[in-house]
């Protein structure tokens, strides 16, 4: 397929576009579900989120009305390590195509490369979304069972652990994990090497908050917390002290969505303009 | 073809082929001939060095008055804190009731009461509501000091809120004396004896049986311009980390070996910035002195209280760790992916030796990259750091050498850890992720990042995370000393780690060794 045809593929005959997309989705879903590794990785996302959240909840103590702890943030602490596993799912979805040479076969079968990429993205999204929802539900249940016994009581200003803001924190965390998996998929499509891609993704996730914590200029720290995908995205977990956040919860998720869109765009460009 | 059997050709086995170094050389050749890995190692060095500039060039939001390049919009920096005799930034703010002492002499007092007031809540008129209470290091006692200017040499005997009698001198030194708190029924006798530059401190519970606490030599004590005259007398200070507080000491039986002159009261450091929180007062009746000093202390400044050190130059280590971990994992997963592992194991059937050779190469690469990067970072950071307007803690050459060598060891061990994990997992992306999560997440959870910044709503991860995980090795970069006698928040973001430098490195070493042992077990047991 020539570059011109790759960039501007001829339009599908009327009525064929949907069927082509469905076929691409079906093919990618078959690839995804017939390999054991993604299943174990998604199980790891759930296990890490619940286990680390339960440990953090067990360690948290709220002894007064102004203890400054956020029950939702405590319960969802497991997202810190779990997002790395979600990132691996996204990176490997594309990375293994390149490392095994499967990409040549895939693009021969599906010469419209962007169709292939977005089918890949869609196929990764659904299971990650489901696993994240399961993980967050498990962590929320653990927090709901553990935290009231550790001082998170109405007397200390936590009337209930199932308010609207708590629901937003849970939904925001699920969306965050899914966006991180898609971000990783985009980076892997742009870099084409799983190892380098996971290094870039984890660097982008973890280095912003570490830098923000140790930089002594509060203005720089605040900006780093606004542009970094991890600190911005986890603003969505806040249920207390929302006015002091560098971004509102939904703005924070918007920043992550921008990162993801940027990475997918880079991946799409690289895929379109480079030989596979 | 009925001729006699042909002897199959065998290449000669030379002794050097059996040597371990031959194997190391082979692994090194594999490493250096992959361009991406060499570039990634270069990125490690470059990241640490370049970020030294960023982390050291932190503007305090003010212009240093001595520099001409300050921007017009920035306000002037607060006055620099005084420096002690050792050059370290110190806090020197206390209430001093003194008289001159020329030549040698002795001062003796009986301290019968030590009480204090601390802020317990917001009060009226902007003044905090005060309640009685002592800080653990509230202090009252006797002191011999070069002069009344801040940062001058001194030695003091004092009673403290809950740390018994102490002898302290030249800001950073502290020696315990009699334990227990002071009361009318358990008074404390304190004595300082000056002999030239040498001062000996004694304490006693009854005024007759004296115990020497320590003898110290203070080179700066006798300024030639003062003709050997120093200031000696009573003092109180209330260390309170900037909150309002007072300390009151009641002294009697004041014995001076020289002809007494009039007592002069001085708030050392003045009041306000760098000085005491509020002026001290004293009353005297029939030889009993009641001396009250405001908030202040005679102590070194700490990282929590706005002191920085060259340690900041090494904060890029985290950035350098990521490419190094990626390369270390690929060093073995690449062999699995391409089937090279079968060739490697055919050439070196003793798998433990192959593993050792790989670990040696990656450790050497990590060490050289880390040490070179740290040395460059220190070199870059040293001239940049003083421009910040924040007082810089002086760091000895020996400590800098430990930081540089320690950073090399930190990266070497991280590389070995990543290599071992990669052998266990045999897949690049999961191996790299495991290594980075194990190293980074404990640090992240400890520094308390996230939605609410410092007090992130998640609470601190606790010191144990920095004692039990590989990131404990960051302690090897600690440049600021921790002072037992200064109550301050010794936290990671201030530059303090819970473990001693080499102990922290030992923790990372234990992790690398455990992972390597498991990798060795699995490598021998599994088919390649």
Essential attributes:
heterodimer, A: 276 residues, mainly alpha, 74% helix, elongated, B: 528 residues, alpha+beta, Jelly Rolls, 10 helices, 19 strands
Tell me what you see in this structure.
Chain A has one domain (18-273). Helix content of chain A is 74%, strand content 0%. Chain A contains twelve helices and no strands. In chain A, helix 3 (36-59) packs parallel to helix 7 (113-146), helix 5 packs parallel to helix 8 (164-191) and helix 7 (113-146) runs antiparallel to helix 8. The relative contact order of chain A is 0.14. Chain B has helices spanning 15-18, 20-32, 35-56, 317-338, 340-347, 351-384, 397-425, 428-447, 464-468, 501-525; strands spanning 62-63, 75-76, 90-92, 94-102, 105-122, 128-132, 139-145, 154-160, 165-169, 173-176, 188-195, 198-204, 211-217, 229-237, 245-256, 264-268, 281-285, 288-294, 298-300. Mean pLDDT of chain B is 86; it is low at 65-74 and 449-456. Chain B starts with 14 loop residues before the first helix and ends with a helix. Chain B is of the alpha+beta class and 528 residues long. Helix content of chain B is 34%, strand content 24%. In chain B, strands 5, 6, 11, 12, 13, 15, 17 and 18 form an eight-stranded antiparallel sheet that branches. In chain B, strands 10-9-8-7-14-4-16 form a seven-stranded antiparallel sheet, with no helix packed on it. A two-stranded parallel ribbon of chain B has the order 1-2. The chains are: A mainly alpha (276), B alpha+beta (528).
């Amino acid at each position: 397929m020539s570059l011109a045809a790759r960039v501007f593929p001829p339009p599908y005959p009327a009525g064929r576009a949907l069927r082509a997309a469905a076929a691409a989705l079906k093919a990618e879903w078959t690839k995804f579900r017939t390999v054991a590794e993604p299943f174990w990785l998604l199980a790891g996302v759930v296990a890490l989120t619940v286990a680390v959240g339960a440990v953090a909840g067990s360690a948290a103590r709220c002894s007064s009305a102004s203890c400054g702890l956020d029950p939702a943030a405590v319960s969802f602490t497991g997202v810190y390590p779990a997002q790395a596993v979600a990132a691996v799912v996204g990176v490997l979805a594309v990375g293994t195509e390149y490392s095994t040479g499967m990409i040549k076969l895939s693009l021969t079968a599906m010469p419209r490369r962007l169709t292939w990429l977005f089918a890949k993205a869609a196929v990764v999204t659904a299971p990650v979304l489901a696993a994240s929802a399961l993980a967050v539900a498990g962590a929320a249940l653990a927090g709901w069972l553990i935290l009231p016994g550790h001082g998170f009581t109405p007397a200390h200003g936590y009337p209930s652990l199932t308010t609207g803001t708590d629901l937003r924190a849970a939904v925001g965390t699920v969306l965050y994990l899914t966006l991180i998996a898609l971000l990783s998929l985009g980076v892997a499509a742009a870099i084409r090497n799983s190892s380098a891609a996971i290094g870039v993704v984890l660097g982008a996730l973890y280095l912003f908050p570490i830098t923000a914590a140790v930089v002594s200029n509060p203005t720089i720290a605040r900006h780093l917390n606004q542009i970094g995908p991890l600190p911005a995205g986890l603003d969505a977990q806040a249920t207390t002290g929302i006015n002091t956040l560098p971004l509102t919860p939904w703005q924070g998720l918007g920043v992550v969505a921008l990162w993801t869109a940027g990475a997918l765009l880079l991946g799409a460009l690289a895929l379109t303009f480079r030989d596979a | 073809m009925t001729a006699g059997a042909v002897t199959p050709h065998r290449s000669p086995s030379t002794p050097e082929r059996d040597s371990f170094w031959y194997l190391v050389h082979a692994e090194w050749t594999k490493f250096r001939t992959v361009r991406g890995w060499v570039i990634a190692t270069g990125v490690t060095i470059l990241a640490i060095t370049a970020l030294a500039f960023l982390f050291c060039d932190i503007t305090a939001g003010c212009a240093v008055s001595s520099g001409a390049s300050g921007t017009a919009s920035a306000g002037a920096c607060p006055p620099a804190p005084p420096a002690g005799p050792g050059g370290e930034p110190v806090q020197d703010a206390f209430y001093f009731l003194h008289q001159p002492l020329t030549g040698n002499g002795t001062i003796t007092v009986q301290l019968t009461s030590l009480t204090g007031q601390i802020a317990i809540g917001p009060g009226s008129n902007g003044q905090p509501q005060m309640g009685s209470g002592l800080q653990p290091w509230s202090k009252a006692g006797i002191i011999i000091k070069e002069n009344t200017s801040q940062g001058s040499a001194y030695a003091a005997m004092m009673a403290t809120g809950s740390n018994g009698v102490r002898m302290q001198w030249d800001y950073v030194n502290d020696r315990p004396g009699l334990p227990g708190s002071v009361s009318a029924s358990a008074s404390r006798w304190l004595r300082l004896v000056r002999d030239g530059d040498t001062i000996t401190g004694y304490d006693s519970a009854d005024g007759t049986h004296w115990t020497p606490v320590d003898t110290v030599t203070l080179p700066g004590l006798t300024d030639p311009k003062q003709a050997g005259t120093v200031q000696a007398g009573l003092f109180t200070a209330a260390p309170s980390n900037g909150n309002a507080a007072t300390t009151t000491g009641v002294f009697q039986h004041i014995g001076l070996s020289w002809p007494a002159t009039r007592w002069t009261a001085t708030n050392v450091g003045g009041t306000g910035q760098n000085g005491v929180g509020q002026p001290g007062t004293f009353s005297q009746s029939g030889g009993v002195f009641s001396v009250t000093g405001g908030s202040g202390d005679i102590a070194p400044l700490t990282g929590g209280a706005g002191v920085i050190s060259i340690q900041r130059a090494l904060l890029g280590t985290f950035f350098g760790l990521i490419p190094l971990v990626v390369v270390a994992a690929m060093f073995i997963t690449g062999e699995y992916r391409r089937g090279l592992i079968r060739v490697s194991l055919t050439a070196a059937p003793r798998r433990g030796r192959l593993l050792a050779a790989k670990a040696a190469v990656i450790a050497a690469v990590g060490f050289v990259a880390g040490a070179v990067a740290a040395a460059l970072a220190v070199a870059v950071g040293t001239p940049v750091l003083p421009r910040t307007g924040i007082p810089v803690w002086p760091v000895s050459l020996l400590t800098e050498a430990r930081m540089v060598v320690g950073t090399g060891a930190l990266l070497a061990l991280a590389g070995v850890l990543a290599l071992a994990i990669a052998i266990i997992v045999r897949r690049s992306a999961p191996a790299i992720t495991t290594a980075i999560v194990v190293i980074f997440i404990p640090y992240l959870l400890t520094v308390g990042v996230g939605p609410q910044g410092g007090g992130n709503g998640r609470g601190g991860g606790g010191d144990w995370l920095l004692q039990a995980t590989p990131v404990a090795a960051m302690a090897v970069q600690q440049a600021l000393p921790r002072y037992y006698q200064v109550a301050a928040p010794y936290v990671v973001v201030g530059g303090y780690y819970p473990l001693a430098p080499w102990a922290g490195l030992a923790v990372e070493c234990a992790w690398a060794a455990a992972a390597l042992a498991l990798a060795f077990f699995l490598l021998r047991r599994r088919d390649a």
